[in-house]
Design brief:
320 residues, 12 helices, MetI-like fold
Amino acid sequence: MKRYITIIIKLILTIIAVLLSVAAYYGLNDNGKQKATEYPYYVYFILIVLGIYIIIAAASVFLRTLRSRLVHKAPLLTGIIIFIALINIITTKTTMLPTLYFPSLDRIIGLIYEQKYFLLENIISSLKLLITGFIWGASIGFLTGLALGYNKKVGYWLNPVTKFIGPIPTTAWIPLALSVFPTTNTANIFLIAFAVWFPVTLMTSSGIQSTNQVHFEVSSTLGASTFYKVIHVAIPSAMPSIFLGVFYGTVSSFATLMAVEMNGNSSGIGWYINWQKQVMMYDGVYAGLIIIAVLCSLILTLLFKVRDRVLVWQKGVIKW
């Protein structure tokens, strides 16, 4: 009985947090310095969150797995709602922060809604650039790391080059890339690919070099060819390190994307953030940052799902 009471309390606290947030929105006086919005976008947003939460809670009555996940995540969701409510109170009800640089959540959420199609166009533009550069960087990085890790002669010549140019910050290559490549778009693709290439190369090489030599010796004894040993021994053994390099490369690619889109681009989330900053519209800056954070989180979550599927044999051996 005590366990069920605890579960109910955890689930109800989230609803209470939402109701208190709405009560604070209407019950506390505004500071009068924030630009008014046509609609209470913050209240709409928080009530939509509450509606989704109630639907999931109702479905969890019949789905045990969903129920356990909801109970586990409910305190975190409550904390997030309280944190957002505090931000809203500080920015709209007090004068603790300068209004110009810290707009209200109404303005940020309202801008995302009102400019949703324009923002979507910029998101698509950024994703095209990011995906193209990422595929090139990850592919070349994987092949380079494979060659460095498996073939000592290749490693002898390429290791010094990789160690020399790899640690150079990607942004340092921007002037050279813009000079060498015929278009800004190809230069940006190169810069994103470079940001992904080094961590993937490094971790792939490290993973292959860490493969137990006994595995290669056994496969050789059984008559395996070099190609077979690479495909069926070296690469599977290095997969955890390869995925780690891909994760590092993903984060680096987003940082590079923001940098290159602020240099000559006419579209993209990075360009949008820079444009909003130049016209002193910081609600747009925060909206762009939120979109970037959500995109990065979604892509990393997708990669984690792929990794868990590929490395299912590691379940229970390595904790992620």
